[in-house]
Amino acid sequence: MSQQTVPTSSVAESAAKPSVVFSFHPADLVGKIMGADAWRTLDLAADYDRDDAGNPAVVEDFRDPENAERVARADYIITGWGAERLVDVSVLDAMPHLKAIFAASGAADRIFTDDEAKQMAKTRGIALSNSGYLNGLPVAEYCFANILLANKQFFRAERMYHEQRGWGAWVDVQSVFANVGNYEKTVGLVCASSRIGRRLMTMLQMTRLDVLAYAIDMSADETASYGAVKADLDMVMSQSDIVSLHAPDIPPLRGMIGARELALMKDGATLLNSARGRVVDHDALIAELQTGRINAILDVTWPEPLPSDSPLWDMPNVILTPHIAGSTGSELHAMGLNVAEELARHVAGKPLKYREEY
């Protein structure tokens, strides 16, 4: 990030503003997440130190004596990916003015080392805010786009077109792709009550697709409000043309999609995983894919990245992308703007839009 991209406040203006410290790992993430709009918003609300190069100073170790003065006067922390388990009780003791922590990621509380530090912050009334909703939007968009493309058999068509250098002797598209389309098709969501799942269901209402939703914490009426039908996992797996996974990586859900569930899928159906690799039993997935009966679009795998000898690399019925569904490139700026706007709200005494309860 060049020095020119960071606005500069006058000394008189900055003296009256609260102090912010940035904590990202690696440190250069701050320049990727904070776009021009974020800097402008933040510069109006707060002051922040710069390093010798003129870029915003980033604290990667709150216990480092070199950061002591900066940490001691901080009113706010802006944090994000990679800045985890950095703040313990001793750090909180060294930050008597800390009022809130804003995360350009899905969870602000990951910055705490343990429950003791978290409880101390809660007792002191330190507010938390995260950008999980903003980070989830690109994931929902990724899923929405791939659902439409998979139902059109876009990936198969693209391969065939390249292999034949055109159609060669012209292929009757209506015969070869007789079952493609986004009409009279069903999409099933697993763990549909997640932020991403809810957003995706909202987007799918713009289509003519039928939607089944598996979510134990959503009623039939709430599910219907998203244009979907509440279903159990077996129904989603067996009746959907596309099964989209939205489960978190927590021990009870690891391997929840195994050989039994995969065997329920329709011939020609597609498994779309933009959630976490470990929610799928990958040995079972590879075995099912090797039959050629189903397809998969995998933005996440386990392990990640895949070993170079994984059979998934060479399967014609598998699309692999390198964990790009979440905020990437310009999409990072939405999260940067969010933390700047949230901080400005807090400074102005307004309610936070994306408060994180803890």
Structural commentary:
InterPro entries: D-isomer_2-hydroxyacid_DH, D-isomer_2_OHA_DH_cat_dom, D-isomer_DH_NAD-bd, NAD(P)-bd_dom_sf. Pfam families: 2-Hacid_dh (PF00389), 2-Hacid_dh_C (PF02826). One of its GO terms (cellular component) is cytosol. Strands 8-7-6-9-10-11-12 form a 7-stranded parallel beta sheet, with helices on both faces. Strands 2-1-3-4-5 form a 5-stranded parallel beta sheet. It is about 35% helix and about 15% strand. The chain folds into 2 domains: about 20-125 and about 330-355; about 135-160 and about 175-320. The longest helix is centred in the middle third of the chain and has 20 residues, at about 130-150. Helix 7 (about 130-150) packs across helix 10 (about 195-205). Strand 6, helix 10 (about 195-205) and strand 7 form a beta-alpha-beta unit. The chain has helices at about 10-15, 30-35, 35-45, 70, 90-95, 115-125, 130-150, 155-165, 175, 195-205, 220-225, 235-240, 260-265, 280-290, 330-345; strands at about 20-25, 45-50, 75-80, 100-105, 125-130, 185-190, 210-215, 230, 240-245, 270-275, 295-300, 320.
Write a concise keyword list for the protein shown above.
alpha/beta; D-isomer_2_OHA_DH_cat_dom; about 15% strand; about 350 residues; 2 domains; elongated; NAD binding
